[in-house]
C-alpha cells in the first residue's frame, strides 16, 4: 500500500532527508522527528474508492521541502481544475518511490517526475504510463556540483577521497546524472568517495554550506532559486562543475486516462500565458518560462545511464 502524507506543517525537510541524514542527529532528535512524522500521517492511499469519484489527483516527487511543494503545486491544481471542469487535488507523498508506486497503481492520475523516476514508472507499468508535458527548461537540464569557497576542489577529478552528498537515490539531477558524469571523469563513486543522501536538492546545498560534507550535487534550478532568494551565501559556496544538458522532469499520466482528459491537460499547460498575471504566477512557481510537449523517447539517454550505473535492471 503506497502511503501519502501531508507535511505542510513540518518545519524540517522531507522524511527521506530526515532519515538519510540521521547520522547528524541525536537519538532523541531522531525519535522526536519520527514521532512528529507519525502524528502528521493522516492521508493514505487505500483504493480509488476512498476518493471523490470525480476528483483528479496529482502528485510530485518530493525533491524539495514539503512546504515548498505545497506552495508550488496547489495553485497549479486550482488552475487545472478549471481546465478539466472537475476538482483537482495535490497529494504529497513520502518519497520518490511512493510517487512512482502511486502512479503505477493508479492511486493518482498524474505525477511530476524526474527523468529517472519516469523511467522507473515506465518499467514498473510495462510502458503504460505516458509523459505528456515538460517545461521548456527540462529539455536542456543540468546539475551543478558545489563546494565551499575555500575548498581545494576545482574539478570532478578532485573528488576522490572526499565526503560527498547526493539528493535522493532516485533523483535524476541529484544522483543519477551526477554519478554518470563522475564515472566519465574516472571516479568510481562507491569506492572513491564517502557518500550520503540528503533526500532533497535544497537539503544538499544546506549540508555543504554547513560543512557536513565537502561537496554535493543538485538540480541547477533549485540552486539558482536558493541563490536568488539569498538562502545560500555565494561568498561561502561556489559551483565548481556544471554538467552537459539532458532531458529531465515531466508530467506523466497513469494508464487508462481518457483521450479527452489527456488533451485537456496538454492544452491547459500549453495555454499558460506569462502575459496573464495569475498564470505567470503559476509559471514562476514552477520555475518555467513555458510548457512544451514531451514523449517517452526523449528519456532513452536517462535509461541508458541508469542501466550503466546498475541503478536499473536491463530489459
Q: Tell me the series of helices and strands, N- to C-terminal.
A: HHEHEHEHEEEHHEHEHEEHHEH
- CATH C-level class of the largest domain is Alpha Beta
CATH superfamily of the largest domain: Periplasmic binding protein-like II
What's the structural domain tally?
Answer: 2
Radius of gyration: 19 Å
Q: Report helical residue fraction.
A: 25-40%
User: DSSP helix count?
Assistant: 12
Distance between the termini: 26 Å
Q: In terms of per-residue confidence, which ranges show pLDDT below 50 for 5 or more consecutive residues? A: 1-51
Task: Provide the structure class.
Answer: alpha/beta
Strand content: 15-25%
The main pleated sheet reads as: 6 strands, mixed
CATH topology of the largest domain: D-Maltodextrin-Binding Protein, domain 2
Strands of the biggest beta sheet: in what spatial order? 2-1-3-10-4-11
In the CATH hierarchy, the architecture of the largest domain is 3-Layer(aba) Sandwich
Average pLDDT metric = 86
Q: What is the tally of beta strands?
A: 11
Shape: globular
Walk me through this protein's architecture.
This protein has helices at residues 15-20, 27-40, 66-84, 96-104, 115-125, 172-184, 189-192, 201-209, 220-228, 259-270, 277-285, 300-308, and strands at 56-60, 88-90, 110-113, 130-135, 143-148, 163-166, 194-197, 215-219, 237-242, 250-253, 291-293. It has 315 residues and is α/β, with parallel strands linked by helices. It folds into two domains: 49-132 and 252-296, Periplasmic binding protein-like II (D-Maltodextrin-Binding Protein, domain 2, 3-Layer(aba) Sandwich), CATH 3.40.190; 142-242, D-Maltodextrin-Binding Protein, domain 2 (3-Layer(aba) Sandwich), CATH 3.40.190. The two termini are 26 Å apart. The chain has twelve helices and eleven strands.
